[in-house]
């Protein structure tokens, strides 16, 4: 509960699951309102993973660095198939990674 004149921060995920950040709510004479919103669509972090297949062998693939939602990044071919090196292409959609290009795996 929030007392009149008070405020509380809540995670954006509690309001909208594909978002991260903070929402600040304030209470004025019994009315709860949004004071500020600092939410963004969930990016894909280096600890997120997808199953990738390189030349018929599958393994867990992670992004080399953070990928913003809607953007592309890279992972290691060798994480999917130890016999290959190079970069594979990854896309991020609301915190979910997909492998889209393995053509650079050698």
Describe the structure.
The protein is mostly beta strands and 106 residues long. The chain has two helices and eight strands; from the N terminus they run βαβββββαββ. The strands form three sheets. A three-stranded antiparallel sheet has the order 1-2-3. Strands 6-7-8 form a three-stranded antiparallel sheet. A two-stranded antiparallel sheet has the order 4-5. β4 and β5 form a beta hairpin. The N and C termini lie far apart (58 Å).
Topology, number of strands: 8
Output mean pLDDT.
94
How far is the N terminus from the C terminus?
58 Å
Uncertain residue ranges: none
Strand pairing plus helix content: what structural class? mainly beta
Name the helicity range.
under 10%
Count of helical stretches = 2
As a percent range, the share of strand residues is over 45%
* Integer-rounded radius of gyration: 20 Å
Main sheet record: 3 strands, antiparallel
Shape annotation: rod-shaped
């Amino acid at each position: 509960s929030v007392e009149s004149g008070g405020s509380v921060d809540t995670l954006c995920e509690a309001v909208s699951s594909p978002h991260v950040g903070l929402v600040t709510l304030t209470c004025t004479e019994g009315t709860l309102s949004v004071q500020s919103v600092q939410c963004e669509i969930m990016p894909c972090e280096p600890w997120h993973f997808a199953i990738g297949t390189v030349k018929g062998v599958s393994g867990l693939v992670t992004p080399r660095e953070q990928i913003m939602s809607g953007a592309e990044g890279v992972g290691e071919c060798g994480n999917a198939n130890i016999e290959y090196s190079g970069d594979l292409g990854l896309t991020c959609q609301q915190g979910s990674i997909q492998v889209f290009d393995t053509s650079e795996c050698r």
